[in-house]
Amino acid sequence: MAPAPLSVLTGSLAGSGQRSSPAERLLPARCMQLLASASSGHLALSQGALPLVVPVTCSLDGGRLLVRAALGLLGASLGQPGVVAFHTGATSPDQSERWEVLVQGRAELHGREAPRQARRPNPPGLPLVAEDATVVLSVSIELVTGWQYAGAQRTRSTISPITKAKKETAR
After folding, report:
1. Which of 32-46, 93-107, 123-137 has the least mean pLDDT?
2. Which residue, of 91, 121, 141, 158, is most buried by count of CB atoms within 10 Å of its CB?
3. Residue 3 lies in a domain
4. CA distances from 17 to 21, 66, 91, 152, 153 (A)
5. Distance between CA 98 and CA 152 in Å, rounded?
6. Alpha-carbon torsion 15, 16, 20, 24, what sign?
7. Rounded Cα distance, 136 and 153, in Å
8. How far apart are CA 79 and CA 88, in angstroms?
9. CATH code for the domain of 146
10. Higher pLDDT among residues 64 and 128, named by residue
11. Rounded CA separation 9/152 (Å)
């Protein structure tokens, strides 16, 4: 049985001129499918008891998530990454649908030599960062959840007041 949409999430999106439709909670199997299609996201971890969120690239390796991050961003967290959260999402080209997936699990350093020799999919490189300045972490997928939002509808005109005034003046 599929989870029911949440009516709590209906209403106007502040300042967007759009009315949101209900959000649908995704089943874990669908979350894993979407996760397999993702190539980037954000990894959240704790560094010195403070939250740290870094952009990463990603790939799915069976039941584990591989993420690549810049060494400079992770700093001292590499010694014991521990419990982490990963977030990714995408919007359809026409912006009528959006999905988000959140993973929680434990991260550990992925062997630097193993990815080059193994048949495992490596996360893509980071733009503008040399590969030797990055590190790959392996994240166990202990909890995966996701949401899909669809059917955004316009509720008011998107013409700005300035454009509207110019059109009226031109008449």
Report:
1. 123-137
2. 141
3. no
4. 13, 38, 18, 10, 9
5. 10
6. negative
7. 40
8. 25
9. 2.30.110.10
10. 64
11. 12
- CA dist., res. 171 & res. 152, Å (int): 33
Q: Is residue 12 part of a domain?
A: no
Provide the whole-model pTM.
0.68
Domain with 57, as residue range(s), is 18-170
4 in a domain, yes or no? Answer: no
Q: How confident is the model at residue 113 (pLDDT cuts 50, 70, 90)?
A: very low
Q: Is residue 10 part of a domain?
A: no
| Residue whose structure tokens are 């996201």 | 41
Q: Which two tokens stand for residue 158?
A: 């998107």
Residue 92 CB-half CA count within 13 A: 10
Kindly tell me the number of DSSP H helices and DSSP E strands found in the chain.
Answer: 4, 11
Phi, psi (5° rounding) for residue 164?
-65, -45
Name the domain count of the chain.
Answer: 1
Q: What is the pLDDT of residue 110?
A: 78
Residue of 117 and 74 predicted with greater confidence: 74
